[in-house]
Write a sequence for this structure.
């Protein structure tokens, strides 16, 4: 799958935040849930649950993010981040 342009970064403090971010990233890349499922061998229903903020494995979230050209970075809460 082609890496989408990375117009922004996302802050997720709850599963629903991460789900919204992944859905936004996927849509910006014009990738359907079915296409993402096919590329990752993760079921479409699991991707749907991830985007809704439901309980899925961390490995699933990292795999989906990686397929979309993103990675997970952990920083202290409230940290000032520079993007450049």
């Amino acid at each position: 799958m082609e890496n989408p342009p990375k117009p922004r970064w996302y802050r997720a403090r709850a599963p629903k935040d991460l789900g919204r971010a992944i859905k936004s990233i996927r849509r910006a890349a014009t990738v359907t849930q079915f296409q993402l499922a096919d590329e990752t061998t993760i079921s479409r229903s699991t991707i749907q649950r991830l985007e809704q903020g439901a309980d899925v494995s961390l490995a699933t979230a990292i795999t989906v993010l990686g397929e979309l050209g993103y990675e997970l970075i952990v920083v202290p809460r409230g940290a000032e981040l520079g993007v450049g």
In short: The chain has four helices and no strands.
